[in-house]
């Protein structure tokens, strides 16, 4: 009778345990592409979302930059030191990929934020109550103002981090945030 009681309490089957990021990173470094695919699937949404907001909701560009970020992650995986969570390291790599792209575009165009601000204006109707309209309004901000707004208000970065990442003074980061918020208020009020 006691063996019957033991068998009633024993699980009928064991659920497979999903490997954690550290295990997947180790296996990926050893060349396991399936492990890296699991890392990709687990983190692509967050990385893509941040990049999408940084590039002004340009979905095609966000897709390209997300893929670039994951290619860089694969190439630099052996440099991951496990001092922070893998998700933090990967997210930062994705954001840096988007910020580098914004810098290159700015240098290629040779335009300042004012010129880009006028070029970004459009015939997009805005309605403050709808998320899609807010995202379009954010996407029409000048690139540096948009980057500061997204990193500070959406991603929760501190001005010191933003300043270091964008190569500007902390005061400039604060000024860009103030400017971005003002431009958003006007765009949404005009709708």
List keywords for this structure.
191 residues; mainly alpha; Rna Polymerase Sigma Factor, Chain: A; Arc Repressor Mutant, subunit A; 10 helices; elongated
Characterise this structure.
The chain contains ten helices and no strands. It has 191 residues and is mainly alpha-helical. It folds into two domains: 18-110, Orthogonal Bundle (Rna Polymerase Sigma Factor, Chain: A); 112-191, Orthogonal Bundle (Arc Repressor Mutant, subunit A), CATH 1.10.10. The chain is elongated and about 60 Å long.
Task: Please outline what is shown here.
With 191 residues, this protein is mostly helical.
Straight-line N-to-C gap? 76 Å
Topology, number of strands: 0
Q: Helix amount, in percent?
A: over 70%
CATH topology of the largest domain: Rna Polymerase Sigma Factor, Chain: A
Assign an overall shape: elongated
Q: Report the mean per-residue pLDDT as an integer.
A: 80
What is the beta-strand fraction? under 5%
| CATH level 1 name of the largest domain | Mainly Alpha
Count of alpha/pi helices: 10
Q: CATH H level of the largest domain: which superfamily?
A: RNA polymerase sigma factor, region 2, helix turn helix motif
Question: Structural class of the secondary elements?
Answer: mainly alpha
Order of helices and strands: HHHHHHHHHH
Poorly predicted spans? 111-129
């Amino acid at each position: 009778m006691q063996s019957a009681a033991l068998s009633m309490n024993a699980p009928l089957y064991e659920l497979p345990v999903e490997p954690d990021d550290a295990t997947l990173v180790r296996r990926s470094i050893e060349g396991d592409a399936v492990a890296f695919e699991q890392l990709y699937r687990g983190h692509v949404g967050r990385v893509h979302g941040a990049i999408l907001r940084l590039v002004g909701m340009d979905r095609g560009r966000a897709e390209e930059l997300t893929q670039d970020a994951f290619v860089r992650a694969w190439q630099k995986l052996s440099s991951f030191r496990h001092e922070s969570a893998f998700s933090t390291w990967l997210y930062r790599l994705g954001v840096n990929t988007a910020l580098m792209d914004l810098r290159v575009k700015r240098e290629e165009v040779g335009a300042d934020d004012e010129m880009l601000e006028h070029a970004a204006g459009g015939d997009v109707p805005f309605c403050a109550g709808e998320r899609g309209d807010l995202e379009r309004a954010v996407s029409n901000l000048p690139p540096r103002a948009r980057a500061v707004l997204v990193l500070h208000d959406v991603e929760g970065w501190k001005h010191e981090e933003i300043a270091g990442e964008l190569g500007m003074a902390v005061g400039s980061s604060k000024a860009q945030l103030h400017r971005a918020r003002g431009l958003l208020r006007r765009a949404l009020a005009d709708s």
